[in-house]
């Protein structure tokens, strides 16, 4: 009995469509490769957009933090004069 690694994507494929999972195990090639390729390209674009949005959000928090620090320092200097 040989052991093989079961990946999360395989579990997802099994849960989504057991028949498609079984066909893949049998080596049956999908007939809609173009559509699958478009889906892969879409997910790559979406992943980049999510990464960029996270980076922009981080930059926003950093700018907000910097502005608050400058405000506190400015008010402190104003009060101490």
TrEMBL record:
Keywords: Membrane, Transmembrane, Transmembrane helix. The chain crosses the membrane at residues 58-80. The keyword Transmembrane helix applies. The keyword Membrane applies. This is DUF83 domain-containing protein. It comes from Anaerolinea thermophila (strain DSM 14523 / JCM 11388 / NBRC 100420 / UNI-1).
